[in-house]
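fyi for ur records
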Amino acid sequence: MNKNKKYFLIYVVNILLGLLYISPLIWMVVSAFKPENRIFADMSKGLAAFWLAGGATLDNFKEVFVRSNMPRYILNSVTYVTILVFLSMAVNSAFGYALAKFEFKGKNVILTVVLSLLVLPLESILLSLFFIVNKLGWVDSYLALIIPFIVKCFDVYLFRQFFLDVPDDLIEAAEIDGAAKWDILWKIRVPMVMSSITICVFLTLTNSFKLFDQNLALTGGDPNHATEMLALNIYQTFYARAGMQWKGYGQAKAVIFCALVIIISLVQLKATRSKEVQQ
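which gave:
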């Protein structure tokens, strides 16, 4: 087998694996534009489930806003994400700066703990977290979804690494020139670590919008759907309600959800990248 045929086969296999990987997403998007009685009926016809053979309809999207009060769940998610992003960036950047620029007893121990927690999956502590939240009386409140998730070990470590690259001589020169602490922070330190802020904001924003496990385990959307985020609402629409029509509504919600996350993420990346400086 010559080199060209080898690479051709590799590309073909990769394309097929890629299509297999995104096939649930394709099915979701296509199903959102189908009448409810065709969503699962087409699945018995093989590849017919992945295209709109009988034409498209927007009925599912119309019903989403009429029957399910989707704007409320979008507002819940946006409110939660906004609060968590600002608190997380403030706390994690300060934590990372302290580990990078200050010398204090136990600094290396704290850094070791931060690095160790990077490999700890959330699922392993979710049950313990529920007991703690319940003991504090935070169950069924936004406090249960915000306070435990402000500090993110990856963000702390990333901020630390970027702050280490900020020269102390540059800060000292600014202080000698009479720059105020506030000016040094916003005109020197923040622009020089803006790349880390871009990454951390993007990860926090997207992960918070996709919040599901914590929402289901710690609040369940209570009280009266006040803490129900968009991802949990999509799950409740598709799986917790009887009737084929709800399957179509769930697919339509999922498409709207994906579009929202993509649009907000692109806007955030453009906004933060425009403030980055080349070092």
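The CA atoms of residues 140 and 219 lie 4 Å apart. thats all i got for now
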